Task: structure prediction
Amino acid sequence: MVRHENNGRCPKCAELLKLAHPKLRAFAEKRQSENAEVHVSCTFRDKADQDRAFAIHASDKKWPMSKHNRTPSYAVDFFQIDRRGNPQWNKDWFLLEIGVPAERAGFRWGGDWDRDGVPHERGEGDNPHVEIP
Result:
């Protein structure tokens, strides 16, 4: 099993990004080149993975309605690994490192689903998620 590494080029992230749409892959690789704490947790989900994500409320979409269910994937989920190797889920970090750059690149992100420039409104709590609109 390949693990996430916080050394600038994470092999696990590279493996996951092979399944992402080229535009999302380029975005993720740029974010990682600018900040080694940026990591990828999910790109493509097969039916079993999507059913599991739906069952545990990690997704509100059933198979095959999620953008994670396309090939290549039209969605990427990110997370942060701090300098000690621990995963972090800081809302402000996602806004600055993922959300703002995603919006500038023309993507939609889970902290501002309606793309009105006001992040974290009611119902907009999927900060790690970036997708092609």
In short: The mean pLDDT is 89.
